[in-house]
Amino acid sequence: MIFVDVDGDRRGHRPGGVSRDRVHRLRGLNHAAAAVVPLHASLQAANAVTTTPDDALPREGNFGRFGGRWVAETLMPAVVELERAWDEARADPSFVAAIDTTLRQWAGRPSALSPALRLAAKLGTRARLWLKREDCNHTGSHKINNCVGQVLLAQRMGKTRIIAETGAGQHGVATATVCAYVGLPCVVYMGAVDVERQQLNVLRMRMLGAEVVPVTAGSATLKDAINEALRDWVAHPVDTHYVIGSVMGPHPYPTMVRELQRVIGREAKAQLHAAVGKLPDAVVACVGGGSNAMGIFADFVADPEVALFGVEAAGAGLDGLHAATMARGSEGVYHGMRSRVLQDDDGQLQEAHSISAGLDYPGVGPEHAWLHETGRARYLSVDDDGALAAVTTLARTEGILPALESAHAIAALPEVLALLGYDRDRGEGRDVLINVSGRGDKDMHTIAARMQEPTP
């Protein structure tokens, strides 16, 4: 087993093993690096656990062998405080009602469930395709569900400052929007590469009053933004709440974010039952960290007759740069969780790539790793070209411009239908539910740049 720390360095198999480059960097401590040291120390403890039996692993927030809480001692009080506050709040009817009311009156829930008749005809299936329209939410994605819940929880806890990270910008915009709504200051960390390719969302966050901090370390993408947010939280654990944007990180984040996103699947189940009087035969969603997928999966995991499909980013191809953690990843500890991580045979973190900034991440939420390992969900891969083509397909068949993230789920439909036996004019009476996690306005800059590239 290989452990990877917040900087992506290999934490050697021997206890306390530290690479030469790592030592050099730690000796050159600056503000950010100084905050890394406690996380680094906590992972020494993580290494020690590799020699213990599974029954000695931490129990909090585990999904089989995955999950847990792998953080620095200095951060442990903050995550324990968060766990207790979340457990108390979710049992408080007034808090649950406040979330429901805010989502309904301000964020636009319930989101629509749209039949995709022309898309089905285009794909040559007689199965009924249904689009869960999270793109219709306030701020344009599913991210608002989680942000409303976490920011209201932070207020209840007496926190006076919110931090977040973002890749595609949708989580950052949603966090900044809710902070503006309740009057809390907000700092959003964002990789410099993502700042460049998501300029519209950067402008939106700043107009909402958030401070956007470009991160130039590493590959300057989502994983590096998460590193910086974790460092900030380590330095300010008392007054600050870190709004993690996906079902990842240390416990309680994976379960808390899943429960806040469960509204997607709960609504879809009720809406589809009202429309056709039955469960869907399959549910499809894109997977980076995996929050929109867990949100729509959650209410169907206990229904074995419903097939679950996650779609990850194959980027430039599975033999090149990609973000296909299920297809090419292996077990490790990263960003406070035990899950699947992209790493080489020596345990060095591999750079992830996807044309969609929201999927450009070398890890995945631990519950997805568990669903993959148990076979409850199947995970497919779609490359950049496939996602780009799917944007046009959905736009021209259904008049919906999806986010590049969501386009991965659309692009996988031919393979999903073939696996289910619903292709080639089959699938009569079958229903396939697809989560459109966000709208594509934010990606026009990326799509336009790609279209202008010369043909090889």
What does this structure look like?
The protein has 456 residues and is of the alpha/beta class. The protein is built from 18 helices and 16 strands. Helices cover 44% and strands 17% of the residues. Strand 3 (62-63) and strand 4 (66-67) form a beta hairpin. A six-stranded mixed beta sheet has the order 5-6-16-11-12-15, sandwiched between helices.
What's a concise summary of this model?
With 456 residues, the protein is of the alpha/beta class. It is built from 18 helices and 16 strands. It has helices spanning 20-27, 31-49, 76-90, 93-105, 117-123, 143-157, 170-182, 192-197, 199-207, 222-235, 253-276, 291-297, 325-328, 366-374, 384-398, 404-411, 413-420, 444-451; strands at 2-4, 10-11, 62-63, 66-67, 113-115, 128-133, 161-166, 186-191, 211-215, 240-243, 282-286, 307-315, 330-334, 337-341, 377-383, 431-436.
